[in-house]
Amino acid sequence: MRRLTANFAQRCPRCLLTRRWCVCPAHREVRCALAVDVLMHPREQFRPTSTGHLIRRVLPDSRQHVWTRERSLAADAVRRPGRELWVLHPHGQPPPIESSPEQVQVLLLDGVWSEATAMAQAVAGWGRLVALPMQGTSRFWLRTQQDGGRFSTVESLLFLLQTFGLREAHDELRLQFELHVYASLRARGRRDLAEHFLDGSPAAKAFAGFLAQLHARRPLAPPPP
């Protein structure tokens, strides 16, 4: 516990990155008509790589709930009145064509594959289980995606925003996501991989000024004895 506390003391309390690579000065809020909730596995609370934290930070109207096996979460504590609850999961059905984002609340399951599966079973019956036609390659280079077609929590939300035609929210959220991945790679000392990631990222142009400052910044030297 002491080691964990010391580790997090070196991190920004908001973005959870080491202070040297904090991305908070480039923070931009993302607002959209869709109601977004994240059901987070307890292990994700301490993982700086968790994109559930990113969603909560960037979407001010989103909410975060922690799921545990020992303390069940009531559906009524999550459901928002006047909206149909969608739980995103690959085993669900395609989204209804006639739905609009103003009528929908999405519940995203934040955890590794086995954790998300357990959470999906726990919330079965809360709402409509929805699967999106997600294709391509994950840009979440911080964890090994074991099989093709697996994406991070925030990428699932990006696909949903695209499905609803919420282009502005999609593009802004993607920029924040890609900046977070890049800075996380740099924080891990993976400079070559980070630069390769940035070469194919729209964040390189969108945050050119901030990135220049980020690269020039150095941690403060300790005061002389």
What do you see in this structure?
The protein has 225 residues and is of the alpha/beta class. It folds into 2 domains: 32-137 and 146-165, 3-Layer(aba) Sandwich (Alpha/beta knot), CATH 3.40.1280; 167-215. Helices cover 36% and strands 13% of the residues. The chain has helices at 2-9, 51-58, 113-122, 153-163, 167-187, 191-199, 203-206, 208-216, and strands at residues 35-40, 63-66, 84-93, 104-110, 128-130. The protein has a 5-stranded parallel β-sheet with strand order 2-1-4-3-5. Strand 1 (35-40), helix 2 (51-58) and strand 2 form a beta-alpha-beta unit. It starts with a helix and ends in a 9-residue tail after the last helix.
